[in-house]
């Protein structure tokens, strides 16, 4: 799933390649991806891309016209992506179950992008709104970890009364916006903290140390992606991950084997030596089988 660093890099890419250009046409191939109907998607035609922003994991294209501004807000979900082309086909994409293209946006110079989604479970969402705050997910977002407001004291305030595990808190978009499964694994590994640690048990000093790791990890990931084409961001993310998605491989810090805990629809990875005092965490998938 694209998280804060990838979405921030996509926003930077679009600022360079799309801002100042007008929308020639928008074709919706997967109607289920379009979550709004007023204003209609046809109102995007001839509007100029005035700016590109990020709200957590949401990408926001601000579109200007004499009639007022609109926003095309996109959430890529688990398997969605933005595929940029300097020259898009003139023919619109054909709807169909085997077509990964959900929406095509063509600019007046022939360039533009396809929003695609792999797999059968569809979650990609597109909104056309007058204000990004009209999007339910955006309106409910917590603090952005790269914002000036995200301080060590702010993080400690978020954790001190939270009875949930720190892994879950880091992934909760209503608390901290933009961190998902992958970067929460990376943050906790770098912080040498168990994913199962209860958030409210963090001392002020531990919260401050975790804050520094969060900001450092995300800032480094954004910096690594700076200047990359949209199509290269996924591979850059995989190369930069030290524990997430690397179960069975040696930990790059201590050499212990990276372990995995699986759930119904996801899993996370960690290093026992670095994070849990050498003790493997219970795999919830196996625990259900031996009850």
TrEMBL record:
Gene Ontology terms: biological process: base-excision repair
Pfam family, one: Fapy_DNA_glyco
PROSITE patterns (UniProt xref): FPG_CAT, ZF_FPG_2
Keyword Calcium: no
InterPro entries tied to this protein: FPG_cat, FPG_N, H2TH_FPG, Ribosomal_uS13-like_H2TH, Znf_DNA_glyclase/AP_lyase, Znf_FPG/IleRS
Keywords: DNA damage, DNA repair, DNA-binding, Glycosidase, Hydrolase, Lyase, Metal-binding, Multifunctional enzyme, Zinc, Zinc-finger
Segments forming domain Formamidopyrimidine-DNA glycosylase catalytic: 2-97
Transmembrane segments: none
Gene Ontology molecular-function annotations: 8-oxo-7,8-dihydroguanine DNA N-glycosylase activity; damaged DNA binding; DNA-(apurinic or apyrimidinic site) endonuclease activity; lyase activity; zinc ion binding
Cofactor(s) named in the record: Zn(2+)
Catalytic activity: Hydrolysis of DNA containing ring-opened 7-methylguanine residues, releasing 2,6-diamino-4-hydroxy-5-(N-methyl)formamidopyrimidine
Residue span, FPG-type domain: 242-276
SUPFAM superfamilies xref list: Glucocorticoid receptor-like (DNA-binding domain) (SSF57716), N-terminal domain of MutM-like DNA repair proteins (SSF81624), S13-like H2TH domain (SSF46946)
Protein family according to the UniProt entry: Belongs to the FPG family.
Protein name: DNA-(Apurinic or apyrimidinic site) lyase /formamidopyrimidine-DNA glycosylase
Species this chain originates from: Actinocorallia herbida
């Amino acid at each position: 799933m694209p998280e804060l660093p990838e979405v921030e890099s996509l926003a930077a890419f679009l600022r360079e390649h799309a801002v100042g250009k007008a929308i020639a046409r928008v074709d919706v191939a997967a109607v289920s991806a379009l979550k709004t109907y007023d204003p209609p998607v046809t109102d995007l035609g001839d509007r100029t891309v005035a700016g590109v922003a990020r709200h957590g994991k949401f990408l926001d294209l601000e579109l200007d016209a004499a009639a007022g501004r609109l926003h095309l807000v996109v959430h890529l979900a688990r398997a969605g992506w933005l595929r940029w082309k300097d020259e898009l086909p003139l023919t619109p994409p054909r709807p169909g179950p085997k077509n990964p293209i959900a929406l095509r946006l063509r600019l007046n110079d022939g360039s533009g992008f396809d929003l695609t989604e792999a797999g059968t479970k569809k979650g990609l969402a597109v909104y056309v709104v007058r204000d990004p705050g009209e999007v339910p997910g955006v309106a409910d977002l917590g603090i952005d970890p790269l914002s000036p407001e995200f301080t060590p004291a702010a993080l400690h305030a978020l954790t001190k009364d939270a009875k949930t595990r720190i892994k879950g808190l880091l992934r909760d978009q209503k608390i901290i916006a933009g961190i998902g499964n992958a970067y929460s694994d990376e943050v906790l590994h770098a912080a040498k903290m168990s994913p199962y640690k209860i958030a409210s048990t963090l001392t002020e000093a531990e919260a401050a140390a975790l804050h520094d790791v969060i900001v450092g990890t995300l800032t480094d990931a954004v910096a690594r992606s700076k200047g990359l084409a949209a199509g290269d961001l996924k591979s850059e993310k995989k190369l930069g991950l030290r524990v997430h998605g690397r179960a069975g491989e040696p930990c790059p810090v201590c050499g212990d084997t990276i372990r995995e805990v699986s759930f119904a629809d996801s899993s996370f990875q960690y290093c026992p030596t670095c994070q849990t005092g050498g003790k493997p965490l219970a795999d919830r998938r196996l625990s259900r089988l031996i009850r």
